Structure formats: structure tokens, C-alpha cells
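Researcher: I'm preparing a figure for a lab meeting and need a structural model of a single chain. I don't have an experimental structure, so a prediction will have to do for now. The sequence is pasted below. Please return the structure as C-alpha cells so I can convert it later.
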Amino acid sequence: MSTGEVMRNTLRKRNQVLKALDDNSQSKSELTDNLDVSRSTIERAIRTLQELGCIRKQNKKYHITTSGKLALDTYQDYVEMTEELTELHEIINSLPDSISIDREFIRGASKNIANPQVPETALRESNELLHSATKLTGLAPLSLPSYPDLLQSKIEENGLDVELIIEQDIPESLHQVRGESFADFVEHENTNLFTTNDSLPCAIWIMETPEGDYAGITVYNQGSVQAVLINDSNDAIEWAWSIYDEYQQNSREVKKL
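Model: Understood. Here is the structure written out cell by cell.
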């Protein structure tokens, strides 16, 4: 077994010891009492962790090393990430392979899962952001016919700037359904629409607000909202921009009359 494998197995079995020593240095007796495990278990853990360079003994107590801190942080990050993936795997797997979601977007994202009885409750957080947003940029399947009306109202109320890439046949379909209201949305000076021949399986967007920028994914299932994931980290926002820029290269601007 390689040293890396030993490290991984030890972190899985003995991470509680490292966590305890990360809080403060302790003796074997203190670890046994505080963790409520047998002394033999503590002795085995200490022996292996010392061999791996994760802890050291000083003044009759054991201290976590810099290597040990990094190993513990890596393990805890792994646990948190796998928990998040487990929670979201059905939603993520519903997207086609062409959408490569960066794990930094998943990390720490707020998760708004739709109630099957009232699917649009998943939009609550993103709609709240939209109230204060100064600009919305993104890919928009526009599965909800009322969405242009919502954006139009925010343009009129707050001067929202809108830049969206939509599928090629969407403008004609929405014009048939929404008539002049959709035409007004397209023609507004704050609106810039682009069309693409590519299929847009989900909405990937960036909202700029006075409080900061947010990136989001809105996942649809048979025309209804399945989930909305939102993250305000720099990595998440950079990822969303990279996806948008990729589609933008193959899109065409919808000309205003």
C-alpha cells in the first residue's frame, strides 16, 4: 500500500484525532477521555499519524503539524464536497454532458429545489436578487412565457440591463404567445438579445447587484423549474462567464427595428 493510500485510510479512520489536536494539544489520556474511545485505539492512531508526519510529540502532549492541518483540511473539503454532490446528483445528472459544471460552482452554492406541487417556489431567491439587480447576463431557454414580462417590469422599475442568448426559434414563438409585450421587450434600449442554433438545456446567468455579483443555474424539467443553484464566489462567477462567452462566440444579435 502506498503512503498516499495509508494517508487516505488514516484520515478516514482517525480524522477525529486530528480534529481534536487541531483545537488544542493533548496527551494520550486527554484524547482518550475527550473522544470517548479506548486507549489502544488512540495509541494506534497516534502511531500512524506520527509516521505520516501529521502530528508530533512535545512536552508530553501531541501537536498537529502543518502537514497534518493540510491533510485535515483536504479531508474535510472532500467530505463536504461529496455531501453536496450526493444532494444534487439527480439535478446535475439531468443536464447533458455538454454542460460541464465546475465543482467550484457547486461548492457552497445555495440550493433551491422545486416543490413538485409549486415548482416556481424554486425561483424565489433568484427573483429576490432580480429586484435589486442592475444587469442580467446569461443563457435563457425562456421555458416560462411570462419571463420576458418579468424582465420588462424590472427594466421599467430599476433600469435593469438585460443581455441574453436564446435559442433560434424562441423569438418567433414568444411573439406569437406574448404579442406586443414581447416586441416591446426586444425593442427596449436596455435589452440585447442574441440567438444560437445550439440547444440551451438550462439557464446559466450572472446578476450584477449593488451588493455584489451572483452566478446561477436554473434547471428545467419538461418546462417547469426543477432547481435553482446560486453562488457568489469569484470562481463560480468566472465559470458562469466562461460558459456565456463560449456560447456568445456562436450567437447572432437580434436586430432591433
